[in-house]
């Protein structure tokens, strides 16, 4: 996002939410860079599921290096399952990355015009891929496309950060998070609110879909 958009978002959130205002003051400006390597971003997202950031980064480095940092659908589909397993992928993730490659190759998932599509359309299209759920699609919207108003209510980090920062006794449900966001006027900058909530946990969110 452009710095002027970030500043507008910070002013909006600080004005409407005292908790976020404090987090913003304590952490300064958190930028949200975007990039257009959509296929690689999705591969990284699939490979990194249910892994620590350190483990995910290690496997992604091996995976990308094997394909000379330029994996494409054909090269992934032609790679043997055993080879991909040797790079650190589980049996399930081998199926997932190949399903992504196949759907992109056959045009069922069209990455070319993603930047012109609405958030809901992108989520609907990405969740056609095996192993890609709403959360993964939302991370793509945030960390690859830089969409400003994404609220990942099922993200454990977001739930934990809200519990700690807003003085709740238990992890909030998705509906509770939506009500909190509405009450405190996060929209149209829910993504930026999420970044500061992650930051409050010292989460290195910049590496999630780099």
Describe this protein with a few key phrases.
mainly alpha; disordered C terminus; EC 3.2.2.21; single chain; HhH-GPD_domain; Alkylbase_DNA_Glycosylase/TA; 2 domains; Endonuclease Iii, domain 2; DNA-3-methyladenine glycosylase II; 210 residues
How would you portray this structure in words?
By secondary structure, this protein is mostly helical. It has 2 domains: 3-33 and 149-204, Endonuclease Iii, domain 2; 38-143, Hypothetical protein, domain 2 (Endonuclease III, domain 1). It is 59% helix and 0% strand. Helix 2 (18-27) packs across helix 12 and helix 10 (156-165) crosses helix 12. Mean pLDDT is 92; it is low at 206-210.
What's the tally of helices? 12
What kind of sheet is the major sheet? none
What general form does the structure show? elongated
- Named CATH architecture of the largest domain: Orthogonal Bundle
CATH fold node name of the largest domain:
Endonuclease III, domain 1
CATH superfamily of the largest domain: Hypothetical protein, domain 2
From the helix content, strand content and strand pairing, which structural class follows? Answer: mainly alpha
Q: Outline the low-pLDDT stretches.
A: 206-210
Q: Which radius of gyration do the C-alpha atoms yield?
A: 18 Å
Catalytic activity: Hydrolysis of alkylated DNA, releasing 3-methyladenine, 3-methylguanine, 7-methylguanine and 7-methyladenine
EC number: 3.2.2.21
Family: Belongs to the alkylbase DNA glycosidase AlkA family.
GO biological process, one term: DNA alkylation repair
């Amino acid at each position: 996002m452009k710095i002027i958009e970030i500043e507008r978002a910070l002013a909006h959130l600080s004005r409407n939410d005292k908790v976020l205002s404090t987090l913003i003051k304590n952490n300064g400006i958190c930028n949200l860079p975007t990039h257009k390597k959509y296929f690689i971003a999705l591969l990284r997202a699939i490979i990194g599921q249910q892994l620590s950031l350190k483990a995910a980064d290690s496997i992604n480095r091996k995976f990308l290096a094997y394909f000379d940092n330029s994996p494409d659908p054909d090269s992934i589909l032609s790679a043997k399952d055993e080879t991909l397993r040797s790079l650190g992928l589980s049996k399930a993730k081998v199926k997932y990355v190949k399903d992504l490659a196949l759907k992109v190759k056959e045009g069922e998932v069209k990455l070319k015009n993603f930047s012109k599509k609405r958030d809901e359309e992108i989520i609907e299209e990405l969740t056609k891929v095996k192993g890609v759920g709403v959360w993964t699609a939302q991370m793509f919207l945030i960390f690859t496309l830089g969409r400003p108003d994404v609220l990942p209510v099922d993200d454990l980090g977001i739930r934990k950060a809200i519990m700690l920062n807003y003085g709740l006794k238990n992890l909030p449900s998705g509906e509770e998070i939506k009500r909190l966001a509405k009450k405190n006027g996060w929209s149209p900058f829910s993504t930026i609110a999420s970044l500061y909530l992650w930051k409050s946990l010292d989460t290195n969110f910049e590496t999630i879909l780099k």
